[in-house]
């Protein structure tokens, strides 16, 4: 009988303990890590944005290349269509978006007061005093934070050198990344170790297969759902339709929780108007989600990430705790990449054990 410290259970327990210790120290270093990532975010944000857009557009460039169109000409064509469409959309949407945001900031105290009056008209005598006071405090804090956020956004948008610099540099980065996408791929491959090159290239292909159609499809689905929500809000006469539809589109990326998070601001806003408006907002969001789950996503997104719902919920909890709303948006794709990496290394480990 082998000693306990040589058994598999002891080794697994040791790895689990080591992992918990690492997580504990990372938690202690959270302020330093957040500060470090804030610095990296400023530096790498334009490159990441350009890389995502290039990654989304590259299949179209490759498709034109297969039809004997020179890559530079294909890039120029796609680039011109993309930038022209984006410029037309933003030129029409940004003024409307900013006007609605400014109007919301001006009428926020009135809307909050009206909502509190509606809630005060309810029979809440059965609730403890602490709960009623907590609800009132929550509304007050919500109004203060939202008003401060709107004010900061309105005051800072376009006012910093960084924003202006990114607005100029990102289009150039997109063009050169699209033009030299394959060159960049080959350059990265040449820097990989010869002994691991084949396996790493295979790993990257698996990640691309797992994420490619999902990311491109989700972006398109979000645009479609946001458009449907905007049309629906306009039909029912919902104020700040573009602003609230943008929240619906952005939150639609988040699995399971996204529809509720996206509808919450509109429902809260509608509660300051009438119960009829609340009902119509719920109907609009329900129709959008039924279309998304039964018609749009199966046709647009195609294959899924093949993640169990339990793992998706775990990823959302981790992402939300680490980075809030951006963490919720990025949690599932990052977890899918981690799954592919773990499967790849596990297969490599099994092959080594069997050889």
Automatic annotation (TrEMBL):
Membrane topology: Multi-pass membrane protein
Segments forming a coiled coil: none
Principal subcellular localization: membrane
UniProt-listed InterPro entries: AI-2E-like
GO cellular component: membrane
Protein name according to UniProt: AI-2E family transporter
GO biological process: transmembrane transport
């Amino acid at each position: 009988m082998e000693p306990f410290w040589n058994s598999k259970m002891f080794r697994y327990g040791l790895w689990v303990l080591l992992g918990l210790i690492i997580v504990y120290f990372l938690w202690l270093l959270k302020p330093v890590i957040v500060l470090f990532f804030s610095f990296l975010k400023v530096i790498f944000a334009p490159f990441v944005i350009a890389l995502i857009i290039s990654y989304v557009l590259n299949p179209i460039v490759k498709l034109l290349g297969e039809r004997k169109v020179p890559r530079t000409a294909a890039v120029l064509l796609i680039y011109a269509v993309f930038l022209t469409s984006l410029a037309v959309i933003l030129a029409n949407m940004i003024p409307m978006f900013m006007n609605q945001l400014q109007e919301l900031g001006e009428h926020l105290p009135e809307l909050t007061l009206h909502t509190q009056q509606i809630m005060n008209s309810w029979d809440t005598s059965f609730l403890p005093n602490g709960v009623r006071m907590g609800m009132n405090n929550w509304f007050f804090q919500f109004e203060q934070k939202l008003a401060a956020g709107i004010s900061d956004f309105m005051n800072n948008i376009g006012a910093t050198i960084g924003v202006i610099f990114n607005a100029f540099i990102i289009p150039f980065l997109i063009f050169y990344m699209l033009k030299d996408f394959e060159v960049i791929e080959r350059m990265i491959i040449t820097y990989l170790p010869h002994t691991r090159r084949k396996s790493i290239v295979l790993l990257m292909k698996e990640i691309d297969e797992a994420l490619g159609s999902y990311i491109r499809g989700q972006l398109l689905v979000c645009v479609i759902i946001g458009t449907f929500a905007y049309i629906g809000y306009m039909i029912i006469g919902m104020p700040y339709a573009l602003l609230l539809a943008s929240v619906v589109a952005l939150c639609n990326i988040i699995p399971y929780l996204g529809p509720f998070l996206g509808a919450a601001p509109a429902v809260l806003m509608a509660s300051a108007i009438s119960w009829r408006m609340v009902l119509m907002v719920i109907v609009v969001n329900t129709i959008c989600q039924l279309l998304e789950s039964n018609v749009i996503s199966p046709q647009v997104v195609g294959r899924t990430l093949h993640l169990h719902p339990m793992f998706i919920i775990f990823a959302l909890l981790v992402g939300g705790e680490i980075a809030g709303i951006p963490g919720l948006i990025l949690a599932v794709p990052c977890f899918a990449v981690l799954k592919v990496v773990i499967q790849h290394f596990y297969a490599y480990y099994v092959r080594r054990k069997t050889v």
